[in-house]
Write a structure and sequence with these properties.
Radius of gyration: 21 Å
CATH class of one domain: Alpha Beta
Number of helices: 10
Strand order of the largest sheet: 1-2-3-4-5-6-7
Helix content: 25-40%
CATH topology of one domain: Metallo-beta-lactamase, Chain A
């Protein structure tokens, strides 16, 4: 298998409310995020005479809306949006889906599970949502202070979504979207979100990868309260293998970081990264341990409450993968907390 080093053909992103053409008719937009990961890349694809298809929306905030308004009076002036394609349900990708679709009278294109999950979480205001969150985190071993934080945060997803469209044009793995003069094939991802959609244009040699493959970090692959027995790491590794079959010279347009080449090398790096984390997870089980104890072997820096939720989810993803392989077993203690041991 041909594997060239990871390289970045563009050394800097466009400024907010500006665009950069990365290939004929394919434009790069960057929006800010109020997190440690402080940006998201969005894409605008020429779609016929005077039309433009948008890929991902940005977070549901007034700041992002103002930047979109500036784009449509600036570099996108005179362009008519034709559709919005969202790679997956996370708020930085779908947060303004309803606002954009309503403003321009366009349709959302997304895989069904991504749209359904986003729509469900946006509508979710029930007491049993919090009860399930607390049950999940008690089983993991959160203390009373941490549980109080979980209850206080509630449904944080809802706060980052402007509104979710009431309808969707569903995408499936293998579907083709014709946008302008290009055909884009949908490649289903997995592990990071329920049914992540990547878009591959063979003619242009471009992959819009969303969060499925990023140039410098691994996307979060986690176990969450709505699916507490899931095993997402296998789905993620399977998706990496699919992407690794694309041509070696593919230009990857990720949602975070800079566009890059060297896709197969990056696939191999991510596979090695998770293999190493699985080794560290197993090595940590010199005796039965709770998830938060195992977490310390994977995340050695200090974590705030926001980061702790992601870190626990990732730790469980690696533990569940090892359980599926028969290398780790899980026991429920008299205190209602799971512990993990070598099988």
């Amino acid at each position: 298998m041909n594997a060239s080093p990871v390289a970045h053909p563009f050394d800097a992103p466009p400024a907010p409310a500006e665009m950069r053409e990365v290939a004929p008719g394919i434009h790069w937009i960057r929006m800010p995020l109020p997190f440690a990961l402080d940006h998201i890349n969005l894409w605008a694809l020429d779609d016929g005479e005077g039309g433009v298809a948008l890929v991902d929306s940005g977070l549901g905030t007034d700041e992002t809306k103002a930047l979109w308004a500036s784009l449509f009076t600036g570099p996108l002036a005179g362009k008519t949006p034709t559709r919005l394609v969202c790679t997956h349900f996370h708020p930085d990708h779908m947060g303004l889906a309803g606002w954009l679709c309503d403003r321009f009278d366009i349709e959302l294109h997304a895989t069904m599970r991504e749209w359904l999950f986003a729509r469900m979480l946006w509508l979710e205001q029930s007491d049993d949502f919090i009860a399930n969150q607390l049950r999940y985190y008690r089983r993991i071993g959160f203390d009373e202070s941490q549980l109080a934080g979980v209850a206080e945060r509630g449904n944080s997803f809802r706060n980052r979504i402007e509104r979710m469209p009431v309808r969707v044009i569903g995408l499936r793995h293998g579907d083709t979207l014709t946008i302008g003069r290009h055909d884009w094939r949908v490649i289903e991802g997995g592990g990071h979100s329920p049914e992540h959609a990547c878009l591959h244009c063979a003619e242009a040699g471009i992959l819009i990868s969303g969060d499925q493959i990023l140039p410098r970090i691994s996307p979060i692959v986690g176990v969450w309260p709505q699916q507490p027995e899931s095993e997402p790491l296998s789905l993620f590794l399977d998706a990496l293998s699919r992407l690794g079959e694309l041509p070696a010279d593919t230009l990857v347009l990720p949602s975070h970081g800079l566009p890059f080449t060297g896709l197969r090398t990056r696939v191999a790096e991510l596979q090695a990264h998770h293999a190493e984390r699985l080794d560290r997870t197993l090595a940590a089980l010199t005796e039965p341990r709770r998830a938060q104890e195992v977490l310390k072997a994977l995340f050695r820096r200090e974590l705030d409450a926001h980061q702790m939720g992601f870190a626990v989810a990732e730790t469980l993803a690696h533990l569940h993968h090892l359980m599926a392989q028969g290398k780790v077993a899980r026991d429920l203690g008299a205190d209602g907390v799971w512990s993990y041991r070598r099988a």
